[in-house]
Amino acid sequence: MTDMTRDDRGEAVLRVMPKLSDINANGHIFGGWVLSQMDIAGGIIAHRLAQGPVATVAIESMKFIAPILLGDIVSVYAREERRGRTSLAIRIDVVATRGIAQEEVPLTSGVYTFVALDADHRPRPFPTA
């Protein structure tokens, strides 16, 4: 993600500032907190593309690049990476806006896979693009 341009990031889905309660013993934001933000953002995109409910089934190629600090404004970007018959992989990139200089710091990147669900919570085909 470090060589990614703004145009490559995809859609800005979430922008959030972590709270004091999100800090771990090292003074950084919990990794699980950012994973949940990524899952929410990916789910928003997957739900839109599935035109209905989806479930997260996998997280792959996850990489933490830098810690998230208290006071960071965290932006979560998402874009479709690949599509199967019932599943959809969403590339999710997370960037912090940090400090007075508003420096952009790449934080983490990963691919989340979602499955479209029918009324019985079983996999169903994604609509054709």
Structure description:
- With 129 residues, the chain is of the alpha+beta class.
- The protein has a single domain (6-116), classed as Roll (Thiol Ester Dehydrase, Chain A).
- It contains 1 helix and 5 strands; from the N terminus they run E-H-E-E-E-E.
- The protein has one helix spanning 31-50; strands spanning 11-16, 54-64, 73-83, 87-98, 103-116.
- It has a 5-stranded antiparallel beta sheet with strand order 1-3-4-5-2, with helices on one face.
- Strand 3 and strand 4 form a beta hairpin.
- The radius of gyration is 15 Å and the shape is elongated.
- The relative contact order is 0.25.
Low-confidence stretches: none
Task: Classify the secondary structure makeup into a structural class.
Answer: alpha+beta
Strand order of the largest sheet: 1-3-4-5-2
CATH class categorisation: Alpha Beta
Shape: elongated
Summarize the helix and strand pattern as letters.
EHEEEE
Q: What is the CATH topology?
A: Thiol Ester Dehydrase, Chain A
